[in-house]
Amino acid sequence: MSTQELRVAVLGAGVMGTDHARRVTRRISGARVSVVNDYVTDKAEQLAAEVPGARVIGDPLDAIEADDVDAVLLATPGPAHHKQLLACVEQRKPVLCEKPMTTDAHTALEIVRAEAALGAALIQVGFQRRFDPEYGELKALLDSGELGQPLLMHCVHRNFAPPPGFSSAMVVNESLVHEVDVTRFLLDEEIAAVRILRPRATSRAPQGLQDPQIAILETTGGRHVDVEVFVGTGVGYQVRTEVVGETGSASIGLGVGVVRTSGSGRWGGRVASGFLERFATAYDTEVQRWVDAVRSEVNVGGPNAWDGYAAAAVCAAAVRSLETGERVPVVLAQRVDG
Ligand SMILES: NC(=O)c1ccc[n+]([C@@H]2O[C@H](COP(=O)([O-])OP(=O)(O)OC[C@H]3O[C@@H](n4cnc5c(N)ncnc54)[C@H](O)[C@@H]3O)[C@@H](O)[C@H]2O)c1
Fold first, then answer.
1. Ligand 1 close to Cβ of residue 107 (< 6 A)
2. Which residue, 306, 287, 255, is CA-closest to 116?
3. What number is the average pLDDT over the span 66-88?
4. What's the pLDDT tens digit per position in 197-220?
5. CA separation (Å) from 72 to 1, 5, 10, 108?
6. What is the DSSP letter of 272?
7. pLDDT tens digits, residue range 146-187?
8. Helix (H, G, I), strand (E, B), or coil: what is residue 203?
9. Is the pTM higher than 0.85?
């Protein structure tokens, strides 16, 4: 591994960019933030002020190109990722890109092909659940065979409230995309078709927002995954996954804090306030492993551009299903990343 600290540019000084910059500065080793960028300069300056040695660069593409930037942490909104990822690939700079990799399958495939043409694995996608201890344990349990062949998976993804301007398609691209990746990660299969059901919307939903949504994912091996995505529960952040196999089942996401059974027949625990709390360890592990991988030039197998593309293709089909109510097959391009 290189003895030099990795100099990281953080693009997007919002919720995730700020959290990642603090993580790199205070909680993980081997890297420091050298550059901060946000198209709202005040936000970049505010974040840079709490990161010793960081400077602000006003243009995101200049930030990616800068000589004092070895790698990029991309925390801008999804629609900005396409152009910024292509710039990272062009500059041959490793990048940890927050999900979604891009917001449509066409641009995601373009990214996969641009990276493959260079023959270098530069992109890791921020599907942090793969680094969460509970998801890791569930994956190990499945791989051990103890549950037998997995048949079904039930997932729940609930938020307190949607951010302003959140649309029905964003429920798919911003939220469901995590369960799409979890399905591919846990079951080791691609998703062959998707259907979105539109139950009665909560009265809390802003005009036109279909919330909640139920997604039915079918894998290439015929397994079915149902996902409740409900972004405006008014309660808190809950992410649960239950896998049902031929010889047993297992659930995660119930154990936030202490889950206990009381004499009154009740059970319960504390509901996390948001993703930064629920997945704090996963984000730390994700970024530390990314930094270690880049410094040692070893691919540690984090979610890559193909994973980002496969998720985008499923989400594109889900958005079509959201509009038509039909089951939509997912057709993936031929794999080019080896
Ligand atoms: N992995 C997770 O659990 C998780 C959780 C939340 C958000 N996210 C993802 O992180 C990314 C950022 O989300 P957020 O919640 O931090 O959003 P945010 O709105 O809080 O922050 C985004 C920032 O990017 C800036 N920005 C917008 N367009 C830009 C551009 N073209 N160039 C430079 N800066 C630009 C905005 O001014 C804003 O400060 C999104 O892709 C989102 O889906 C991931």
1. no
2. 306
3. 98
4. 999 999 999 999 999 999 999 999
5. 18, 14, 6, 18
6. B
7. 889 999 999 999 999 999 999 999 999 999 999 999 999 999
8. coil
9. yes
Q: Which of 38, 181, 276 to mutate to test the pocket of ligand 1 (most atoms within 8 A of CB)?
A: 38
| Residue 136, CA distances (Å) to 35, 128, 227, 232 in order | 32, 11, 20, 28
Q: Which two tokens stand for residue 293?
A: 């991988």
Give the contacts of 90 (CB within 8 A, at least 6 positions apart): 114
pLDDT tens-digit profile of 290-323? 999 999 887 667 899 999 999 999 999 999 999 9
Which ligand 1 atom is at minimum distance from the Cα of 275?
Answer: 3
Alpha carbons 211 and 159: distance in angstroms, whole number? 11
Which ligand 1 atom is the nearest neighbour of the CA of 78? Answer: 41
Tokens of 144: 């051990």
Distance 33 CA to ligand 1 centre (A): 17
Ligand 1, residue 283: give the atom nearest the CA: 1
For the segment 266-298, what is each residue's pLDDT rounded down to a tens digit? 455 556 778 998 899 999 999 999 999 999 887
Q: For helices 15-22 and 41-49, give the axis angle rounded to 10 degrees.
A: 20
Query: Which of 22, 23, 39, 170 to mutate to test ligand 1, by most ligand atoms within 8 A of the CB atom?
Result: 39
**CA–CA distance from 158 to each of 64, 162, 214, 230, 235 (Å)?**
34, 10, 12, 5, 9
Residue 76: CB within 6 Å of ligand 1?
A: yes
